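Handout, section B. The chain below has 316 residues.
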Amino acid sequence: MKISVIVPTLNRPERVQTLLRSIAANTYQPDEIILVEQGDVEKLKLVIEKFNLIFSISVIFQSQKSTARARNNGARKAAGDIFIYLDDDMVLGEMYIQNALAFLKANPKSNAVYGSYTKSEPTWTFKRLLGVFFFVYSFSARGKVMMSGSYDYVRGKNLNKIQSVEWMPSGNMVIRAKLMQEFIFSPNFLRWSFGEDVMFTYQVHKRYPGTLYYLPQLEVFHNHAIEQKMIPDEVIRMKIIYRYIFWKKEVSTGSVFDAMAYIWSQIGLLGLDLWHRQSFHILYVALTSYLYLFRYRQGIMNSTVDFNKFIFTNSE
């Protein structure tokens, strides 16, 4: 099996360098690494020069800042049978690639796997109980998507179990390349592209249920979860609009119960955002986003409304 590693990045050569060191330290080496730079290509090339002696590295420049489009562009360039999608701030355990390949070879009906993040998280807290109450999290914590459009991570006692999941994070995912002939990451999701991984992998799950797996032995360390330079208002609007698109397109059956579950979860998500940062401004941005969503929901779904203009400039 030929292995292609695909990494979207934006002006973070030092993070890419750390990631490449961890790949070079792996017990199994990829056949190629494709870096999709959405910023300064020359700075990235200076940092990765010494790694060209270890493995083949290609750098693609993408002018449009979109993690989702970068993953698609990398896939079009890649020649492997297996694609490993990574975020630029990941650090792999030394047997990450070997363990992933071993599982895919031993389980030919499996389509993709992802691994554990080496960080401690409390299983149950008041915040988590609040999330369960509002259909934001599930009791199972087994990588499921709920009728509200919310989705849970594998946590707690399930962290040490190999298990099938309904979605997986694309910044830590090993997938059979043939699937990219059937599915793509949503090109309408720009910048950070919140939820592009959930939409993509949930589509795979719906067509091929029981073929996505969580493997505890695929260890990664996440240097940083969200780019701090992102404007908070953009993040709030992006989460609201993109999450609605995912729910409406992939989860909702059109029932009143589904709609009630979605609305109830949004109340919970807003409450959790306010939990992290008590601010009337966050409340204002969220409420104006919901008003925009309610007014233009049909245009958003049929792509006659430029919702990204609202998200990133707050103007219609």
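Note. The chain is about 40% helix and 15% strand. Compare this with the example in section A.
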